[in-house]
């Protein structure tokens, strides 16, 4: 029987979850399947690209909020009931619980695959205990309504099992589809920033939305320490709510001539290839797609030890791990990495091992398995 593979997104912004879905969809299409998208909010820079390549159905949500998403349930259920043997792939907490409720209304006709892209750790303080407890309860609920729970790293799988949020029967590990088949072509495209062609000083690159979890303040403070010893520059690719605060911090640290908030790029490979070093300062990462992208580009890596990066870098074999929130330790790691020639072949081999093809094979096997 023909199956309909539906990738469910909050919006079409250029972020890790959205690129996961796009790369997976492209890989499934090459396998002869016909994936399509269901998008809660009709917005995002990737929307024209998705609409060009795939069938896209948009709903009427206006925010990524649980109760706002619930208003789209009637239209969502009607859409799903109109598809032959639908398999719905969902990957953000509020989307997951909305998809689980939709599954109840579809009365067994819908197969739900929930992808856990985020870590679920214990609350860091008493003030966030209630919020974390509610999140854990919702996670417990939608994972038991889902047919399969895909964890994007062993780190995530261990988190869920430790907290009792994942059924051993339903949970499985599939790494993200990251390196596409046209990688060699993408990496050869020009990186449109003068710092990456002018090799007067080393240029560090960071990639990711400008959000608190990415902890760019620690990276900026580390850069200030580095610059007291060595002239370097930092190029940050991404957009988000923290731009005003980060701009203010750049000014406070007097880094205006050495930091550029360069906005989003659909193809980050040329920037990573041209960089002298890639740096990730996040407080938490379930996996860390951009670390894989940097390794595939033969670019050395310094990353906080915040979950998934340790798994990708194999305990520091393929890059340097530093504690979360420690600018001085990050600064020292940056200086050491800039002075240590990398084994580029080893880095590239590790990065290329996280291919779209491997992930697509794992997902197609999942589709063919009994629900």
Could you name the CATH topology of the largest domain? Rossmann fold
Distance between the ends: 14 Å
Secondary-structure-based class equals alpha/beta
Give the strand content.
15-25%
Q: How many β-strand stretches?
A: 13
The coarse overall form would be globular
Series of secondary-structure elements, N-terminal to C-terminal: EHEHEHHEHEHEHEHEHEHEHEHEHEHHH
Second CATH tier, the architecture of the largest domain: 3-Layer(aba) Sandwich
Secondary structure tally, helices = 16
Largest sheet: 7 strands, parallel
Overview of the structural elements:
This protein is of the alpha/beta class and 371 residues long. It folds into two domains: 4-177 and 355-368, Rossmann fold (3-Layer(aba) Sandwich); 183-352, Glycogen Phosphorylase B (Rossmann fold), CATH 3.40.50. It is built from 16 helices and 13 strands. The strands form two sheets. A seven-stranded parallel sheet has the order 3-2-1-4-5-6-7, sandwiched between helices. Strands 10-9-8-11-12-13 form a six-stranded parallel sheet, with helices on both faces. Helix 5 runs parallel beside helix 6. The mean pLDDT is 92.
